[in-house]
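Workshop exercise sheet. Pairs work together: one partner reads the sequence aloud, the other fills in the structure field after running the prediction. Swap roles for the next sheet.
Pair: D.N. / O.F.
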Amino acid sequence: MNSFKCNKIASHIIDWLNNYIKDVPVDGFIVGLSGGVDSALVASLCARTNKKVLLLNMPIRQSDGEFSRAQKQIDSLEKAYSNVKGLIIDLTNSFESFEATMPDDVNKDLLSMANARARIRMTTLYAVGQTNQLLVAGTGNKVEDFGIGFYTKYGDGGVDLSPIGDLMKSEVFKLAKHLGVIQGIIEAKPTDGLWGDERNDEDQIGATYDELEFAMNYNGDATALTDRLKEVLKVYKRLNSINQHKMNPIPVCNLDGIK
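Structure field:
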């Protein structure tokens, strides 16, 4: 993706955001920043709409690196754009109160509690967004949202619109660099920040985003692949299969002919 293409894509997304809310009774957008490249890119695009933009940093036992990267990006955009305002809402106490009320088996289920963090953040975004008449801008990319379903249902998947949902992760990085996302975020390994430790997306998924992009686009004979790429294809197909419940519309029991 060259500079011209980056300009064209950025302009298209910014126009799309503005056109989306043109006839909607809202004032702009709210974005939760995680310290990762996806949310930093969405924040940068929303800032350029010249509409009201709120950027939230919502730590829950967050690593210093994640919190610091998110705040530096917020500060940078707040300084550059008069329509942008940053807000820190520390949700650690809220999460710990929730955690303390859960039965022991739920409390000890690390994945369940990690997803709860994302859902508490989603609730916060909608509460603050509604008060300020803002839509929640999603931060998922094409691989995560439509390839492997690597997001929390009704957590970071609970949004009003998806500005970068048609961008591959590699394209996200290129556009983020082009728009001046801070270097610390560009260089950081992608992570969902839900575990309170330094594990990254690759650790959880078992493949890099470049490998997943290959698998998402591959239609050839799997027997011709290297052992590693065969393994990547297996990882992709497994995650794509088990996460269909996230990517498909909610099933509705049809009562035609019964009522």
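Discussion prompt: Residues 169 and 209 are 6 Å apart (CA to CA). What would you look at next?
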